Amino acid sequence: MTEENLAPVTMLSTPIRLDYDFTAGLAQSKTLAGYAQGKFIGQRCPKCKQVYVPSGGSCPTDGVAMDEVVELPNTGTVTTYCIVNVPFAGQSIELPYICGQILLDGANISFMGLLQEIPTDEVRMGLRVEAVWVPEDELGPNLSSVKYFRPTGEPDADYETFKEYL
Amino acid sequence: MADVVEVFRSPHVLEYPYVRSTGPIVGGYLSGLRDGKILGATGAAGRVIVPPTEYDPDTAEELSELVEVGPGGVVTTWAWVSDPREDAPLSEPFAWALVQPDGADTGILTPVAASGPDAMASGMRVTASFLPSAERQGRVQDLRCFVPEEAS
Amino acid sequence: MSAPKPVVGNRPVAICSFAQSPSLRRVDQANEVEMLMPVIAEVFAKANMTKDDMGFICSGSTDYLIGGPFSFVMALDAVGVWPPKSESHVEMDAAWALYEAWVQLQEGVIDTALVYGFGKSSLGDLSRVLAMQLDPYTMGPLWPDQVSLAALQARALLDRGLSTEQEFAEIAARSRHDALKNPNAQVRNEIPVAELLEEAYAVSPLRRHTLPPLSDAAAAVILVAGDRAYDVVDRPAWITGIDHRVETHAFGARDLAVSTSTAMAAKIAGVGNGPVDIAELHGPFAPQEVIVRQAIGLDDSVTINPSGGPLAANPMMAAGLIRMGEAASRIWDGSATRAVAHATSGPLLQQNLVCVLEGES
Description:
The complex is a heterotrimer of chains A (about 170), B (about 150) and C (about 350).
Chain A lengths: L10 E13 L1 H12 L3 E5 L6 E2 L15 E5 L2 E10 L12 E8 L6 E5 L12 E6 L12 E6 L15
Antiparallel strand pairs in A: 2-3, 2-4, 5-6, 5-8, 6-7, 8-9
Chain B lengths: L8 E13 L1 H12 L3 E5 L5 E2 L16 E4 L2 E10 L12 E8 L6 E5 L12 E6 L12 E6 L4
Antiparallel strand pairs in B: 2-3, 2-4, 5-6, 5-8, 6-7, 8-9
Chain C lengths: L12 E8 L11 H16 L9 E4 L2 H4 L4 H5 L11 E4 L3 H13 L5 E9 L5 H6 L14 H14 L5 H15 L13 H4 L4 E3 L2 E2 L8 E10 L3 H4 L4 E10 L13 H10 L8 E3 L5 H11 L6 E2 L14 H14 L5 E8 L5 E8 L3
Parallel strand pairs in C: 2-3, 2-4, 9-10, 9-11
Antiparallel strand pairs in C: 1-7, 1-8, 4-7, 5-6, 8-12, 11-12
Helix pairs in contact in C: 4-12, 7-11, 10-11
């Protein structure tokens, strides 16, 4: 086959790679340092008094620094959840599993967390949960320090207490 | 110093394996490079644009006719890289240049392999140096560089 | 008092407040939001306004600098956009965000707008980041670095006899000298031209001093339309002309020694309709200042970049907006009556914006 007989080029592979030296900034670093100690660190807005965990540094409502550090407890409420049955690339958790939105007690924003130690057909909105941390010598400044959340056994939270956070 | 917070830093990599549709004009150019030829597009008033574009940059007229240009050409401007970056197309010191192939009216961004800045000048004659045909894949790197004409 | 009649647009709009963070090689103690927050607070404080007074918010930034998606959405936290605000974003220098806001103000529905831009060059390799804006088929895969590309433009200028390496060094020396008076500038020193010319080439024909610094910073301005501008500042910097033009992305098809788009924008913005006291030009590399100055048609009587310009501080996505803020500052303080601000975006002066600012005499 001569070169001229090759098929015309219609596709081109153009891989890109960009390397970064990411900085977490001040507020996020406080939260990350908390993870390394097995603690949830949130920040409170001086204006609207809302507590965000984690905080990006600024109150999204008021645009001012959330500079008051607040240590939050290990316990919270599942505001909503989903059950994951679909495998995807890079998955490390056994299917099916529960992905919940956790509203820590005293916080005004929920975040996503893995729920374990409960059958998938027993999870519900309002479920009271607590964080299970990795062993102390494995704690680090990242969310991997939180192994998962599990039920506390307390009665469910009243819908009225978390309906604003759905 | 109780308020001093350690600010965390972390390496972060953004990587995408983009695969792009070339369309017939850019695809024609890349097919040409794979076949060891440089193709340009004939634009308004017979102006030949290389690398070819789907449109005339001045009039926006749609272009479809590809013509062969080069392999010889003229350096229209150049920059001497004495300390090539790791991602540079040539690992030895080289010149980045715009080369206007014979028969074309615009310049190709390309490395020029020359012995040193003293061997470079705007207006100098150069010629295309392709990868060996077995290594060519239909991408811009198939045209490895230009070299001074006397050295070809 | 009344605003000068604009030559572009029907409604007088003025730059009434400006704030910027100091340009630094690396801002480590703050993420983008934290870098921006004090700047937004300052631009509001200077205007005695709040976010709730703003009719529109527009920003300029690019996700490739941070390496994450939708960074402009996170940046809005620095303003606080609850209750929901009318907002937009451009993936260009924030000077183009200012243009979008100016267009909105022309409609006559709103009277005020906040414009900001931010960028950190320190997080990644800026040459790799900027290679992402090149043609992805014929240029991107070669990963040409921004200094080499600017050097091609510099050589084109030198070959044409339109400038000299001596002039490049004079521009750098002047910029760094003037930056001594600008606490927000990054490269501030007093080095004689002869000494600068002894530097080795970074990429020939560009020596290190002809390169802009790598900067982390943010900037913001407030635009106010009509007589409300006088409530904010005694001598508003009225935008009497503004225009932006783009040239082909294929820079091998352009004459790199000139800037046709700048010349056209300057003409439409009415630069030549009166004398110019000062100009803030956004030619990040020293030779680009020569090209832009020639394209706008500024003679030697015009003071160029009294702030030190982009050779003294060059935060990506904000440096063009800073030119507009710096030029406006000269109107407010009375040191200029008619000023020109220029911004560029894209590879090798692909897109150019020219703005004429006037104060009442």
